[in-house]
Design a protein that fits this description.
Number of strands: 9
Oligomer: single chain
Structural class: alpha/beta
Largest sheet: 5 strands, parallel
Strand content: 5-15%
Protein name: Succinoglycan biosynthesis protein ExoV
Radius of gyration: 21 Å
InterPro entries: Polysacch_pyruvyl_Trfase
Strand order of the largest sheet: 6-5-7-8-9
Length: 297
């Protein structure tokens, strides 16, 4: 059975899959595509024509076309009640995101070195120099494409996490670090946020702030809107728009971004979280019992 997760980049949430599942279900996964294990992430919309068996464990839906849940699927649990409703399964199977299983791991105690840490969505990270912005306002910057253990260490070393990336919030919540949701670009998918937050009886109420773009992202936006193919014209327009926008809006944006740490903080009820983690652990055992005949667990 092959462990399936999004691998086109080293995004934090996706990179958690082999760490969590290969430790909790050791000596099990291989590269046989005829049976697959769909783990953490919004990957239910993908098609796997070679797979005769598709095990779904804490996976979410957020993009594209809804899958047809036929007899080839074994839905053990999904990320939250919204995913459960969209694919038409028992709402009790919408437990919570599988990253909550990190609560069963021992990462040790960490000194709180950072008052505020900010982790952008991996797409937003390409839009602007967030490391420089964080330095200006006194925040610690967490690169969403850093090795996942480094990110976990940074989260545990922070007093509060300013999270545009959903798994920054999920892991912070799991490790009992308060977090503040922020939305700065249209690429942020609210459905998956609400799917997860509702699984823990929380509301997704992001602090919205219109963020600037760097020169490269500005060029892409102008080219898309105006269907420009003339390289010199595109380059000229991009520079003018970027300089004008940056000159007028940057200082105001920096002040607003720096104030985001004053917004209300979130942390789920620990008893409820422990209950959800317990349910996920029970589902791991269900999986082992059902598929132990295939391999020696």
């Amino acid at each position: 059975m092959k462990l399936i997760y999004y691998q086109k980049n080293k995004n934090f949430g996706d990179a958690l899959n082999p760490f969590i599942f290969k430790k909790l279900i050791p000596n099990f996964f291989d590269d046989d595509p005829s049976s697959i294990f769909l783990g953490i992430g919004s990957i239910l919309q993908f098609h796997f024509p070679e797979a005769h068996k598709k095990v779904v464990f804490s996976t979410g839906f957020a993009y594209g076309k809804l899958p047809e849940i036929d007899s080839s699927y074994d839905v053990i649990c999904v990320r939250g009640p919204l995913t459960a409703k969209r694919i038409g399964i028992d709402p009790k199977l919408g437990i919570t995101d599988g990253a909550a299983l990190l609560k069963t791991f021992d990462f040790g105690e960490k000194e709180k070195k950072y008052r505020v840490s900010f982790m952008p969505h991996h797409q937003s990270d390409h839009n602007y120099d967030w490391k420089k912005v964080c330095r200006e306002v006194g925040f610690n910057y967490i690169d969403p494409l850093s090795p996942f253990l480094e990110i976990i260490d940074a989260i545990k070393s922070s007093e509060v996490i300013l999270a545009e990336a959903m798994h920054a919030a999920i892991v912070a919540d799991t490790l009992r670090v308060p977090w503040i949701p922020i939305k700065m670009y249209p690429s942020i998918n609210e459905f998956k946020w609400k799917d997860w937050t509702s699984s823990l009886d929380m509301q997704y109420t992001p602090n919205c702030l219109k963020a600037p773009y760097n020169l490269g992202a500005t060029s892409e936006k102008i080219a898309t809107r105006l269907s420009l193919e003339d390289g010199l014209l595109l380059k000229g327009l991009s520079k003018v728009h970027y300089k004008y926008s940056d000159m007028l809006k940057r200082n105001q944006f920096i002040d607003q971004f720096g104030d985001m740490c004053k917004a209300p903080q979130f942390l789920s009820d620990e008893k409820l979280l422990d209950n959800k983690v317990g349910q996920l652990q029970e589902k791991i055992e269900v999986f082992k019992r059902k598929y132990s005949s295939l391999y020696t667990l």
